[in-house]
From TrEMBL:
Pfam families, per the entry: Acyl_transf_3 (PF01757)
InterPro entries: Acyl_transf_3_dom
Main location: membrane
Designated name of the protein: Acyltransferase
GO MF annotation terms: O-acetyltransferase activity
Keyword field: Acyltransferase, Cell membrane, Membrane, Transferase, Transmembrane, Transmembrane helix
Any one of the GO CC terms: plasma membrane
Chain ranges passing through the membrane: 56-73, 93-116, 137-161, 173-195, 202-220, 226-246, 258-278, 298-315, 335-358, 378-398, 442-463
Annotated spans, Disordered: 1-49
Native organism: Streptomyces radicis
Protein family: Belongs to the acyltransferase 3 family.
Amino acid sequence: MASLSSIRTTRTRRAARPAPAPRAAPDAERVDNAPGHRTPPHPPTRGPGRNHYADLLRVCAIAAVVVGHWLLTDITYHHGHLGGRNSVEYVGWGRWVTLALQVLPVFFTVGGYVNAVSWTSHHARGTPWHAWVGARAMALLWPVVVYVVVAALGVTVALVAGAPARELDRAGWFVALHLWFLPVYLALILLTPLLLAAHRRWGLAVPAVMAALAGAVDLARVGGDVPVVGAANYLLVWGAIHQWGFSWLDRRLTRPRWLPAALAGVSAVLLTLLLWPGPFPVDMIGAGLRVNNTAPPSIALLAFAATQVGLLLTAEPRMAPRLERPARLRRLARLNGAVLTVYLWHMVPVILIALTLYPTGVAPQPDIGSGPWVALRVAWVAVLAIVLAPLALGVMWAERPLRKLPLGAGVAGRWAPVPLVAGIGATAAGLAKIAVDGFAPGGRIAVLGLALVAVGVSLTFLAGPRRGPEGGSGGGG
């Protein structure tokens, strides 16, 4: 989970026998459950290659991120000015809470699993890699486009209305900081065909090498005081975690059955050694620290993620059978279809409630960390959830027409991947800039970030052979 301040502080084979490929799923039982993919009204409760436990983990991970952000956000109103603080920086025991709130490794592991299932299925049907990547990326980007456009319009209206620059800057940053994971995830979608081929050749050696390289980067970054190299760990750490999803799919990570528990135990020991003598802090969101674990991600975060994922895979044999009831699967499918929308929009209620309740004095402001403050966190989360639920439903309804748009402009030939790669690169760069600077840096519209996103999404949408919204030429995603 990204913290409320960690991003801003970053300004300154042995040959193994190939695993059997999953059966290609028929169109009625699609396994293309990328974040943001909308599940049909009556989704299949069973399907080749579908792992409902993975769906459950993704839903729970996003729910934990949302609640975590809400708990850590402490809104203030003094002398006519709204502000916000990250409560972890003011509550002594708060940094230990991040061990329960940092769950994005689960999301990336599930992402690796479902990306491998989807690419394997479409590759078996003859889909070119760039067609799959384009459709997969757009399934992720459609909800993002809606969110970015609405946020940009909101900033424009606030500017015209004469909103104070400092408060507009802060509000624009609050509703942008959680976009940080999208550039990383887009890069992993782009690299999935290559990374999956590497996995089939070298297996768990691939994430092991990534982990070793991440450790070397941290040695240079922290021990050698060369912070510029830290950016490599965004791909190495999150890429290794994404790679675990491939090993989950072909059972290299779960057979024999004791292996996940062993992974969790060894990783927990390594994590303790990294945190106790140092130099890494226990805080797994990296708020306001010189050395942090998320911006850029550290080897300590990777050890923490291995512990977390090992425990969850250990629990799979007991938990998965409990999901196999039609009513539960229908509820899970509906929740799974809403995860990206909920994630994107969950900070908007914070701004709406702050503007409504704090200046009017309706919302109390007890001392941060006090008993009343802790008790009010429950009411705070409940009110935000009540506001978010209809907001998310309305947004999902508004997004439906976008899903019907055919992708691609008929680009073919060996140069077909070029506009796609350029588009994903520009989109990732634009989203990264917005995540760091916000939608209104210095009280002004984020022109460069928004322009990069507009150009990048347009190129991604138009690149490749023309196909239907579900990948009519085999590029669904």
